[in-house]
Amino acid sequence: MQFELTDALINQILFSMEEQDIEHLLDSRRGVVIDADLIDEYEEDEEADEIEEDEEAEDAGRYIAIPEWRSADGFRLMEGFAASLRNPIVREELTSALDRGRGVFRAFKDVLSGRPEVERLWFAWKEREMRRAVTDWYDALREEWGLERLGEEPDETGDLLLEDFRFRAAEAGDEEAARRLHEVCLAEALGGADPGRRRPKMEELDPLRADPWPLAGVAGRHALVAETARGDFAAFALAVGAAPLFRLLALEVAPEFRGLGVGEDLLSRMLGTCRSFGGRSLVLDLPACSEAFARVLAREGFAPFETRYRIDLDSP
Prior knowledge:
The protein is of the alpha+beta class. It has twelve helices and eight strands. The protein is elongated.
């Protein structure tokens, strides 16, 4: 029997799919999910005068098994989520949790409970994938009915994730946290140097060495900050200059918040800030250790302007 797959019905099916110790059936005539073991009681409760003769003729196909969802499906879902994360720290923590012999599901949840932003992303990912399983099941039924398949729903995961961050203009009180993050990023750049060559000194890599702090309160300096819903300092961006040309000196994201779209959103907001001050161009140096960010720059419309090389003159 044909039925409409409404959001309310999808939610019923999703809830029932996770009750793996109970067999559920969809009553396609009433559009509700029921316990298969209670079907006799369910039918006895129906009013006899509500059942028309033409409906009785269709009762043979009235009850439909909902999509099967096993523990193995849940495990594969967790594996897929962990592999999809671009943040290496969280990815490794979740992968280690999944490699445990026992208590895998609890270990996975424990990792997420300490990272609310990633946990929210997990819930959105899980719902999206399970809804996809439901729509695939429904599409198969529609093909049996001689109908076209439904299109996929738009992915709103990124928008949901960024709701967990607040973006604002930098304040004087942000400088200490920004300095600590800056030191972390510089140390990473040093660690990424070619081990066969002399490591550059910190001051050689520091793009802020010619433009000392503070972040805020100085004309010609524009700084933005991203923080979590809990108030944790997550990232900052700093641009200097005046119309028509600005230079982005820093765009740095704390390691635990990378891969969540924070840097890309912060860059987009900084572009808007520079435009509001009459800027027509923004230039930046992209460190070799951050080349993956070039894809983000391309999406924002950046194009290569020049390539900077360096050589150690004191090396053989």
